[in-house]
Structure formats: structure tokens, C-alpha cells
Amino acid sequence: MRSIFKIFSLFFFSFILSTAAIAAEHGTAQEAEAMVKKAIAYMKTNGQEKALAEFNNPKGSFVDRDLYVWVAENNGKAIAHGANQRLVGKDLRTLRDVDNKAFIEEIMTMANNKGKGWVDYKWPNPVTKAIEAKSTYFEKSGDLIFACGIYK
Fold this sequence. Notes:
Layout: H1 2-25, H2 29-46, H3 48-55, E1 63-64, E2 67-73, E3 78-81, H4 103-114, E4 116-124, E5 131-141, E6 144-151
Antiparallel strand pairs: 1-2, 2-3, 2-6, 4-5, 5-6
Helix pairs in contact: 2-3
Pfam families: sCache_2 (PF17200)
Protein name: Cache domain-containing protein
Main location: membrane
């Protein structure tokens, strides 16, 4: 009986530790919102050139675990992307998720109408490389849209 209890206890604590480790790898909604606000403030304080260089730096202060900032002009052109430099200079409005959802169009429309919000879609996680449910928080500041997403 004690052996069963020991095995169960060991399994239970292993499960708790592994769940905590997985959760620590993912950013939270609050962290994503804070990162967007931090990015907007950073650009206002340091100017666009310095800010974009920092946002595009994969080892910079705007990349944390699976969180990263991306910035687009009002026309959909990416000017910064912390996880995929190949997207910089591209029109992001053409992107679709695995379900063919035009999530960037939705972000652009909502940003122009409401100023900020959340959009859900499915996207490859740069850490795990798996397609995962994702929700992106965005805010419009001037003619730019700042965004950061969380994997669920």
C-alpha cells in the first residue's frame, strides 16, 4: 500500500512540476499587453529608428520566451518583427492562418476602428514549431500598429 502511495505521490508531483514548467515557457495575456505598451513607450522615448532595431533584435528586450513584438504600418507593411525577420517589409495583410482566416486584416480593421483589442487564430509557435491556438493583442499608436501574441 505504501508503494502505491509513493508512486502516486511521485507521479502527482512530477505532473505539477511539468505543468509549471510548460506554463513558464508561455507568456500570458497580461505580459503581452504590457509588452505592447512598453514598445509604444520605448518608441516615443527613443525614436523610431532605435526602437525598430530593438524590436527586430531576436535577443533584445522585446522578445521573451514565445512573446515578441511586431509592428506594422497602417497599410499592413511590417516594419518590425521579433520572431521572423523575413516578414519585415512585407504586406502582412496577405497572411492567413491554417484555417484560411485573414487575421491580419481583422487586426488592421479593429485597430483602425477601436484602437486596440485581441484577435484569435492559429499560428506556428517559434519555440515549439507546432501550429497552436494564438491570440494577439494590438494597439494603434499614430500610424503604426504594435502587436504581441500569446500561445494558448
